[in-house]
Amino acid sequence: MKRSVVFTTVAALALIALASPAAAFHDTADIDGCGDAPTKGTDILALSVVSKATTGDDGWITVEMALCGAPVKGAKYRVHFDYKDELASARNPACRTTSDTIAVHTGGAAETKNGGPVAITVDKTTVTHSRDTGTVTLEKYSIVFRVRYQDLGIFVGDDLEVWANTEMKGIADRAPNTNGGDGCAKPQEGAEVLGIELID
């Protein structure tokens, strides 16, 4: 699958704390921005995916959901993994559910649906910016989802598509954004997911 990276601002890149891509990594990211959810804690700032193989077909997928504020108690944070026959990039006009595994973080507890163990952690880091008026310190919150290739039953060379949403009394935000005018809350084309090929 073609590797795609979407960046809207250089400043937003500083808020993604994944390792810099090297030969052993494949990565892709979507900068969603803030201001399109009811609360900062359910507003997805950025979604990024990195795959890294270790030995043979054993490797790791790391998905980072960066938020515009602290996670909200009672909200749900979902990452959808699509990797079997029906992929959104192949078009999904019937608005079917293509997710093969869904990992959910809610209120400090982690659970998985439809698949193997996904390690979920909440990370809080401090980012400092120097300005003419002084130093500005920002808090950055991320929910990190990490899973092995073998736990999803996928292998080097396979295609993986990832998307995410937050929910609190209905869908709060999605990344990448779906086409709000098509009446489907699920991805229906390649632009509505992050696509990555598992590296060797």
Q: Quote the average pLDDT.
A: 76
List the total number of helices.
2
N-to-C order of helices and strands: HEEEEEEEEHEEE
Q: Report the structural category.
A: mainly beta
Low-confidence stretches: 1-24
β content, as a range? over 45%
Measure the end-to-end span.
14 Å
Q: Multimeric state of these chains? A: single chain
Number of strands: 11
State the major sheet.
Answer: 6 strands, antiparallel
Percent helix range: under 10%
Query: Radius of gyration over alpha carbons?
Result: 16 Å
Number of domain modules: 1
- The best one-word shape is globular
Task: Provide structural commentary.
Strand 5 and strand 6 form a beta hairpin. With 200 residues, the protein is mainly β. The protein starts with 9 loop residues before the first helix and ends with a strand. Helix content is 4%, strand content 46%. It has one domain. The chain is built from two helices and eleven strands. Residues 1-24 have low confidence and may be disordered. Strands 4, 5, 6, 9, 10 and 11 form a six-stranded antiparallel β-sheet that branches. Strands 1-2-3-8-7 form a five-stranded antiparallel β-sheet. It has helices at residues 10-13, 149-152; strands at residues 25-31, 44-55, 58-67, 76-82, 101-106, 109-113, 119-131, 134-148, 159-167, 171-175, 194-197.
